[in-house]
Design goal:
- It contains eight helices and eleven strands.
- It is α/β, with parallel strands linked by helices.
- The protein folds into two domains: 124 residues, Rossmann fold; 108 residues, no CATH class.
- The longest helix has 24 residues.
């Protein structure tokens, strides 16, 4: 049974979400702010987190950052809930590492669909992760099934070294050293600009080949900072369309 952690300071919202999720067959845990949420997440290791944005003490944005940067489950799917139809808040949420963003009151069918989709995607990541436990093994996949952001996070968290090739609108290459992106090229773009362009690609394929490759470094920011900026730029572009 999949475990879901709900973090919200509104007891009525907690109750409604618990009822909907338990009826759908999930095991549900609750917390009322980000600090409680972090403790509960470290205790139960949920498969997915649903959190309000506006909460006392530690809000949802800070809570999401803590999960991504300082927890044993940094890649757990994360959904933000808010009653504010605020584009700036939505951008902040995605920049903190959220996977989905839903406006309250949330339609039950929409919520359950998002939960199921994110859990299925997380399972695909785990499948690839288990298949790359040995340094000698590579892997490949389709961007329609697994986003490039997820692949980069996987390689970063597992401190992989090797070359990630991408075939989308154009051809690209990202070189990793101990989980850090050190070189990027996509079409005519290089460095971090190449990463910003290739990460949002939703159609195409990728392949990772482990090993060391000598290149002249052109990515100088940390992998997670570059990836977060790429996701932020992509989200801003989607919102403005």
């Amino acid at each position: 049974m999949k475990k879901i952690l709900i973090v919200d300071d509104n007891k009525h919202v907690l109750k409604l979400l618990r009822i909907s999720l338990e009826k759908a067959g999930y095991e549900v845990y609750e917390a009322t702010n980000g600090d409680e949420g972090l403790k509960k997440a470290q205790e139960v290791l949920p498969d997915l987190i649903i959190s309000d944005v506006m909460m006392p003490t530690t809000d949802g944005i800070e809570f999401c950052w803590m999960i991504r940067e300082n927890s044993p489950i940094p890649m757990v799917p994360f959904i933000f809930l808010t009653s504010l139809e605020d584009q700036e808040m939505e951008i902040r949420g995605f920049r903190a590492g959220a996977d989905e963003y839903l406006i309250k009151p949330v339609d039950r069918a929409v919520l359950l669909e998002k939960v199921e989709t994110l859990l299925e995607r997380a399972n695909r990541v785990k499948t690839i992760d288990s298949g790359t436990s040995e340094q000698v093994s590579g892997f490949e996949g389709n961007l329609a099934d697994l986003t490039l952001a997820e692949v980069i996070q996987l390689l970063n968290l597992n401190q992989r070294s090797g070359v990630l090739t991408v075939e989308a609108e154009e051809e690209g290459e990202i070189v990793f050293s101990n989980g850090q992106m050190i070189y990027g090229k996509y079409g005519d773009l290089t460095g971090e600009e190449a990463i910003y362009k290739v990460v949002p690609q939703k159609q195409g394929s990728f392949r990772f080949e482990p090993g060391e490759k000598e290149v002249e470094r052109n990515i100088h920011g940390s992998t997670m900072n570059v990836l977060i900026e790429a996701c932020r730029l992509a989200d801003e572009g989607n919102i403005s369309e």
